[in-house]
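Worked example

This section walks through a single chain of length 355. The input is the sequence exactly as stored; nothing has been trimmed or padded.
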Amino acid sequence: MAYYPSRVGETPIETVDISLFITETSDSLADLERLRSGQALVRALHNLGFVKVAGHGIEKHEIETAFAWTKKLFDLPYEDKMRAPHPPSSMPHRGYSGIGKEKVYSPADVEANGAVANPAKALRKISDFKESYEIGSEDDPVQQNIWLPDDILPDFRRRMADLYKRMCGVSEALLQAICVGLGLNDEERTALDRLISYRHCQLRLLHYPAISKDRLQNDLIARLPSHTDWGTFTILFQDGGGGLELKNPQSQEYLHAEPEDETIILNIGDMLQRFTNDYFISASHRVSIPKADRVPETGIPARYSIPFFTTPDFTHVVETLPRFVTTETPCKYEPVRFDEYGASVSKYQYEGNDS
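Given that input, the structure is written out below as tokens.
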């Protein structure tokens, strides 16, 4: 925790309780509190593009169990993890990726390397020191899951399929809160609902291995460079190790997302930014590595996190909602089909796509 202090002078990341969107209570007082909660969520997301969320309905023991299974997975020998290998290209985005296989980047990174003969190789000069496992819906017709054999990690498939469903429920509550906070009518709510298809979302298990002080001093190394998520929004559980930083769109400085028990991070993705014509800004974020002179001789410990990415159907065309287009704020975005947008922004994510 001491490695990652909050930036001096920055406003702490706000926490909003959405518990009234999880329960079935319905009376005039509950409706008023639900409205206030939704408006608080929308206000926080409008100001920064991200917020901490409490009252999301997933209990502390469930979160601890999810992290325990994540650790079990990544503690397996490499040969066992490679029984469920991610393919060399970005589709299907499923299964296990070893350390350095995936490269995360921003449009600015691509632009900065646009003049070189091989931008994919240039982007990989500093590899991402992490490993991951990607999981989707068992009903996804486009990307089928790539599971470990049951004898490698018994019960893992069932546990992760259940966690995926739980995260779909949290996503639905958050979508409802955003709808209430924005005051959308029925037609607008239908358009918002189409930004999430629960057969196309993605659950990701992440492990950032420990890094020695010697390696920090002598090697070029990164955990996760600055980027935005290209779906609708992202929900994140993180362990107590710290390191997640989100960019304040006003000050352009990064704000450390201090881990807190039983809260999740919610950040806006590119599709919701386009849908709202920049009323919500897609949150730029990274997982940082502290400077070597701030690290003890033992180095920095491993870090685990579990993000859940919400997305539309692959063929869905995302258009800006008319209520966000005015004379003062003309439309900034052309309609875009989600799979075509994703293919464009993830072109160099895996080496099989580099050519």
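What to look for: Confidence is low (pLDDT under 50) at residues 1-9.
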